Amino acid sequence: MDRFAPAGPAWSRLAYDELLANQLALGLVRANLKRPAGRRNVGDGQLPGRIEAALPFSLTGSQTRAIAEIASDMSAPTRMLRLLQGDVGSGKTVVALMAMAAAAEAGRQSALMAPTELLARQHARTLAPLAASAGLTVAILTGREKGREREDILAGLASGAIHIVVGTHALFQEHVRFRDLGLAVIDEQHRFGVHQRLALAAKGEAVDLLVMTATPIPRTLVLTYFGDMESSQLTEKPAGRKPVDTRVIGMDRLGDVVDGIGRALEAG
């Protein structure tokens, strides 16, 4: 009877058969999944090449794989729906920029939507100099942009002069119009509702969708498992990145936290 014990060969065989059946079923779902028609959203690769040459670090193996997977999706006759998952500091934003550069080569625009203005401005600061190395224009659109500045941004989106726009919920407001939106990138996608994501994608024709997160939620995992969403994983960090140190501190020590942040800022 030992062979029927939990660690015996019978249990191992049952587990293997169940895993194999699930994978075969998943393959059938993906093979028969009907996605909306898309448009070819890639060029000859020159713009992404210029950006890569301007990077102060070399792309990791997982970044290179993710970029290739996204490029393959964007060149397909169906719309892309892909999840890009990676820890903080793994380089998701650079991967997204490569995709946005590919869309620009195809003559289309891109929008990156972040859940907060602080994160949106952080993305814009990261993207702007790298995009400029490929001759691409980056703008930011949040609730803070007012008056003439906002009018100029809206005009640039409508004319196509702005290739990449980074923003918050302001991006899917009715008065925001693009000349030809081709790629929508959603950061920390669990912070947005389905209707908000669809509202941004509806700003263009056959818009490819890339969602990024460091913390996938169960619904995201279910979509990935059952084939509605492809997935790319960033498992490495670029050379020179400091490890992320996460600690839980009680509210009674909030002053110590503030002092520690101040010391870190002074140290550069």
Structural description of this entry:
The chain is an alpha/beta fold. It has helices at residues 9-32, 46-54, 61-74, 92-105, 117-132, 147-159, 194-201, 218-225, 254-266, and strands at 81-86, 109-113, 138-141, 164-167, 181-187, 208-213, 230-234. Helix 4 crosses helix 5. The longest helix is centred in the first third of the chain and has 24 residues, at 9-32.
Q: What is the fold-level CATH name, i.e. the topology?
A: Rossmann fold
Level-2 CATH architecture = 3-Layer(aba) Sandwich
Beta-strand content: 5-15%
Cα distance spanning the termini: 65 Å
Structure summary, number of beta strands: 7
The CATH homologous superfamily is named P-loop containing nucleotide triphosphate hydrolases
Radius of gyration, in Å, reads: 21 Å
**Structural class, from helix and strand content?**
alpha/beta
What's the order of the H and E elements?
Answer: HHHEHEHEHEEHEHEH
Report helical residue fraction. 40-55%
CATH level 1 class label: Alpha Beta
The poorly predicted ranges are none
Based on Cα principal axes, name the global outline.
Answer: globular
The order of strands across the largest sheet is: 3-4-2-5-6-1-7
Oligomer status: single chain
- Summed over residues and divided by their number, the pLDDT gives a mean of 85
Number of helices: 9
Q: Please give the domain count.
A: 1
